[in-house]
Amino acid sequence: MDLDTNNHSVFKLNYHLIMVIKYRRKVIDDAISNRLQEIFESIAPNYHISVKEWNHDIDHVHVLFTAKPNTELSKFINAYKSASSRRIKTEYSSIRKKLWKEHFWSQSYCLLTVGGAPLEVLKRYIENQGEK
Questions:
Q1: What is the residue extent of each domain of the chain?
Q2: Which run of H or E residues covers position 75?
Q3: What share of the chain has pLDDT > 70, as a percent?
Q4: Could you give the CA distance from residue 1 to residue 46 in angstroms, rounded to a whole number?
Q5: Interior CA angle at 110 toward 9 and 65, to 5°?
Q6: Could you say which of 3.10.180.10, 3.30.70.1290, 3.40.50.150, 3.10.129.10 is the CATH number of the domain covering 4-127?
Q7: pLDDT per residue over 28-76, tens digit each?
């Protein structure tokens, strides 16, 4: 496994982010998804985030990304949602008719950590520390 480093630590932080359109409006097609990904990737370096995978359905997006320990994930997600909402509504003005009161993203999101080893394996590893 390749690990990331900075001055004082070694880490591997992978996240799975799911963001949903307000009231699950069905507005995401391939062109909009590609533009949303471009916006994500343009903001991500400012927060030390790197996109590993992106995909979408008609009412939500999935993003697999890596981050650093000092990344403020909630600030990044809010900055992204704000910027992408504004840009998408400007660039795809017809989308406004499909939205509810101009809201693009739902206020909530799902953010999951993802890793290589299952939780049970890690629990056993920690439980067995100090035993010979």
A1: 4-127
A2: helix 73-91
A3: 97
A4: 25
A5: 40
A6: 3.30.70.1290
A7: 999 999 999 999 999 999 999 999 999 999 999 999 999 999 999 999 9
